[in-house]
Design goal:
Layout (H helix, E strand, L loop, with lengths): L4 E5 L4 H15 L4 E7 L9 H15 L3 E7 L8 H14 L3 E4 L8 H15 L8 E2 L2 E2 L7 E5 L9 E4 L4 H8 L21 H18 L4 E6 L13
Parallel strand pairs: 1-2, 1-4, 2-3, 4-7
Antiparallel strand pairs: 5-6, 7-9, 8-9
Helix pairs in contact: 1-5, 2-5, 3-4
Length: 238
Amino acid sequence: MKLDILAFGAHPDDVELGCSGTLAKEIALGKKVGIIDLTQGELGTRGSVEKRYEEAAKASQILGVSVRKNLKFRDGFFVNDEKHQLEVIKMIRKYQPEIVLCNAVDDRHIDHPKGSKLVSDACFLSGLRMIETELDGQKQTAHRPKVVYHYIQWKNIEPDFVVDISKYIQKKLDAVFAYDSQFYKPDSNEPVTPIATLNFQESIEYRAKDLGRLIGVDYAEGFTVERYIGVNSLSDLI
């Protein structure tokens, strides 16, 4: 299955928090979108691996993604080496996306920048035909996505561009809070984590509102780029 957009996250819920409003918008525009989780989030303080799979499936259904897969890399300990790059390359060659979205280039959680660089490097290497891969017994052909964009996570990194998600903010919030084991619940007996606070919960919407304010819309999501963004004309800008 060829996808238009393939979004990678180091953990289940990274994609939902970082760019699910944009994915929902693109899906509504007829694009085929997939999500690849690098780890199962097994080191997460709250919930369990089994619960994370249930939550990820629910979030995927809310967003309407075409496919979701977990590569089961070691949470906290995966590295950007040949072994891991080849597994990511197999996914890129399988789904042949034009656009890849991945973790923030700099962030509080060590897996986020690791995942960011791993996926970015794999996108380049995937275009080299001398690197041979097989999947399900079939040789794969080289494929390099046209662009790699990085969504914003814990840190308030200044975006290179933002996407108007005003019509999709509720779908984003619904997808995020499908991970109900991970976020704020006033009656929860689970340990409190940085993302399981009322402050963080409220920040999801007010960050989107603030990014929207800066471009004159209600809500937006921000991304950083690896190369200059080109437009056909000034009228492409909003």
